[in-house]
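User: Could you check the structure of this?
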Amino acid sequence: MNNRNKNNDFEDIFKNRRSIRSYDPNVKITKEELTEIIEEAATAPSSANLQPWRVVVVESDEGKEKLRPLIRFNTKQNDTSSAMLLLFADFKSYENAERIFNEAVQEGLMPPEVRDQQLETILRCTLHFQKTL
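Assistant: Sure, the predicted structure tokens are below.
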């Protein structure tokens, strides 16, 4: 992923974007390339750094066939793509916050007082959210 095309012109990006509907089925993305893409995407900022997403890679013909009924308007992309990346949101990622932040403290990536402040904020927000349901 070394050659990156950077375009910071929002209007250009917005007005000239396009959707690819069909791929060359003979082109395959290697597992190494897919891993690199996913690892780079995982560095995107997330609320409280909890990274509340899960990624499933579907490469096999059998797996893609199982997806077909679920993606009825995108079957051509499914059938011709090298792989399908399924993104899932983890709405209970906050349950892992203490473990994640404790590991960060142990590795010297976060001071204990920041961990404590973050955990307090997450707990307060979670309790507030649960009361509104």
